[in-house]
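W.,

You were right to be curious about this one. When I first looked at the sequence I had no strong expectations either way, so I just let the prediction run and decided to look at it fresh. Below is the sequence, 141 residues in total, followed by the output.
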Amino acid sequence: MTIKERQQEIIDDFSMYEEWLDKYEYIIELGKSLPGLPEEKKTEDRLIRGCQSRVWLDCIKKDGKVMFDADSDAIITRGIISMLISVYSGQSPADILADDFSFLDALGLKENLSPTRSNGLLSMISAIRDKAAENERNTDS
């Protein structure tokens, strides 16, 4: 599935809910379904800076694709990172870097998060882009 197709799935899922309380509940459910990371992978080098909550992002490159795993100690943040990695995991570094992440605007997510969570979202996006850029430079699988 392409990035745009995955983004559209999330937009469609979000559009089923009219109230933001229901959308938050959906995000929480996404967070609960995220497998998370084992404790030994919750290291400083995987910690995303700029998030009020603790968020870890793990990344490997396999067959030219970037594979992400993540975890957070806050359930809504965990849901948000789950949504992001469901879109970008399994994609090529070039495709991730070419995306503008505008599907988040279509969700209205930035406007409906607290300022600290909104800043955290921007930090998560930056971390995903940084990992994609690292993996694009590194041509080894």
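Here's what jumped out at me. The first helix runs from residue 3 to 15. And, maybe more interesting for your project: The two ends are 20 Å apart (CA to CA).

Coffee later to discuss?

I.
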